[in-house]
Amino acid sequence: MKKRASLHNLGCKVNAYETDVMAELLSSAGYEIVPFGEPADVVIINTCSVTNIADRKSRQMLHRARKQNPQALIVAAGCYVQTGGKDPDADICLGNNKKGELLRALEEKLDIVIDLKEGCGYEDMQLSRPAEHTRAFIKIQDGCNQFCSYCIIPFARGRVRSRRPSEILAEARKMASAGVKELVLTGIHISSYGYDLLYPEKRPMANAFAEEELLKLLSELDAIPGIERLRLSSLEPRIITPGFAEGLKGIPSLCPHFHLSLQSGSDAVLKRMNRHYDTADYARRVELLRKSFDDPAITTDIIVGFPGETEAEFKESLEFAERMGFYEMHIFKYSRRRGTVADRLPGQLSEAQKAERSDALEEVEKRMTADYRLRHIGKRGEVLCEEEKLINGTRYMTGHTREYLKLALQDSAALPGELCEVTIGEALSEDFLRGIE
User: Fold this and answer.
1) What is the CATH number of domain 135-376?
2) Sign of CA dihedral 235, 239, 244, 246
3) N or C end of the chain: which has fewer CB within 10 A?
4) Are 106 and 146 in contact (CB under 8 A)?
């Protein structure tokens, strides 16, 4: 009988990509991949360590895996391994930049964890087939040199290292051959992509960008037959220069959907966060994108309750976010993380204070999201059909526009993977607008 393996992912899109690669490695070695929770010979938890809460969830999932499969080999992989050491429920530890050696670790019952602080090359990991039929994530770089005061990721992921363009393009062609229409470029800090390739003798610092390398990669991906859309994951605001914005505009398949992480709308808080820009600078970068694209979707991350955040500073943050008119905001309540500068800062706020501020910001987000969706009603838009869903008892084909608006098409003959030109209609639900063919 085939050995059985299950995998569970915690954390970001980079982790999700690497989990898919590990599943593919196991499948190619003859393992049957089964849903997490079913009996298995090997259970892999790809962990997260971005906050203390993420650490706790990683420990909980490892304990759950051990309880469900007491005889299985339990593998703890990823960021929690890099920052927290070996968990008592894990038989094998597999650090970042070593997930591609999963099969060797299993065969030799071997922990494989390296010190990422000293620098290392990009780990060759690639998918030969997409996890989804319509959209695929492609990892283009790893590591971060920003050292924001609240963040452990530079220690968990190491320094910036970029994947070679030839490898990215080869994987993209495989995805196109499999019918994928949209590629999402992801990484830990994709704005630093290519700096280490362009300047191999230099140690990338917090302001190390190579805009021309990212634009060149996008242009080469744009030329691949079958790839109709390119989408970028989170960008560093400072990479948005006039030249870069115009370069993005010149790539036909690039979706006008940009995630520029803000973290706070208070200059004093941004300084304590070590974010390397202020609100005026951030606003200029957003304006550059809005000049180059017709009403692009601008999304962001904001942390509430950062140490020392006063009522006045939170009000500044809330008002700045509203002035920016974001399409969506990912709102996080600050979570202390051992090993970071922010963990030692005075003025730690209570959970009740953080929750109150999060609720207030969510109300602002709801209004901004509604406003952005309303502006698109009546316009023509392109939807990438993805899956059928029941909405209010009626079956629709659903998908996303280039701006990442969710649309639902009733009585449509379109199949998943098809691109349809539609008129954007009124709201069907809190999430979906109607698409009229």
Assistant:
1) 3.80.30.20
2) positive
3) N
4) no
